[in-house]
Prior knowledge:
505 residues, Rossmann fold, alpha/beta, 6-stranded mixed sheet, single chain
Amino acid sequence: MTDTQPPAPIVEISGLTKRFPGVLALDRISVSFRPGEVHAVIGENGAGKSTLMNILAGDLQPDGGTIRIDGKPATIPSPLASRAAGITVVYQELALCPTLSIAENIMMSDMAARSVVSLVPRDEMRRQARMALTRLGMGTLDPDTKVSRLSVAEMQLVEIAGAIRQRARVLVLDEPNSALSKRESDRLFEIVKQLRSEGVTVIYVSHHLKEVLDLADRITVMRDGRTIETMDNDGLSEDRLIRAMVGRELDTAAQWSLQAEARSHEAPVVLSVEKLGAPGLDEVSFHARAGEILGIGGLPDSGKDMLGEALFGLCARRGQVTIDGKELRAADPQGAIRNGMALVPADRRGAGGLLTMSVANNVVSASLPRFSLAGFMRRGAVRREARAQVARLDARISHLGQKLGTLSGGNQQKIILGRSLVTNPRVLVLHEPTRGVDVGAKAEIYAILRGIAGEGVAVVMISSEIPELIMNAERVLVLRNGRISGELTGAGINEEAILARAMAS
């Protein structure tokens, strides 16, 4: 008899159920996680992944089913209880305190767990923080630096540093590299593999199927609140995972094929940008034509992540931005909207959506004068417009009064996009339009954006995902050190060309 018996699960979930008003979020979920494995959990938005992870984190309580830890029945009534059981969850939406230092954020969980108020020696705090940062290859960061001064990528790694410092037995990573460069992602993957070799269970939630196939030992697919299957990662392909996730064949080639011949290179220039300067941007000039999808790429420190805010007037800028020949004033987002610009920001939950407000109110929130009379909202007009946008974008909601924060990520993004379309934009600027969105919803959003471009709107797509640019953009501008380092068109748009210009000396 060979020694091939897998180890007993460290966490075993059986028949787990969770209901929200009008929604069965988890329907008798069953899955187990073994010691020392990387176990990926994948599925479309709304599949139940976040609900399951929130239960493991102690943020939600199940309505039925059992959880066993080390073979013993367990309850997880709070986040502190989750950490006491050896489970640490790092969410995609960062949970750092920006006014505190790196060291204070990394040590925060230790301070929260203390039974009495006590002081933590600052030198010891710095030493512990520096050790955790060094382990992630960030030893040059000063532990006294305020988190608010860090880039999004650095914030993500600080949160992960705090998690691994707690010596978690089970580490849950929810889209951990959504804001990281390739170099930072590679370092993160090394850390994940190192933790696995040390016996830590890593539950890896991601929409990036390639990295899932590169990292995971086993993969669990969820769909419609159920576990569809758990597979050993042996000879699996992205197509196989996609079929399991969506429950159907997804003709990605057809959906992502560009209809370049239908776009006229002689179409009029809608957006003109001359010598744009702003934080992280230096003398940037370009144009976008009617019906064009213009891609903007570059590394996290290239300046691309400030471009949307600068164009829309959310930060101080110099230079000239015009739409149909009319100049937009700096620091005037309302003026940008009036003159035909709409922005879909990258931070969907923090800056994009009004999460505690209804779907209907979110749809019209950028166009309130159109839907009010003598200071009162015209509820009928609001509902009609919201219903039209929901239908146009095929957003899956239960009713127009549903709070935006209760929707899946992909449907939130559709509603935020619908809000922009209500303003009848001539220029639509999207920053990371499909961050945290599953492969099925991505294909739908891409088809929507092509339809919008087909109506004559100039679409500016700012993205960290190179495949997204390749599949959608007719032209790609690559930024480096705040300047345009190259322009690619047609067949010249490929990963090697984009990276070469993004990393050129």
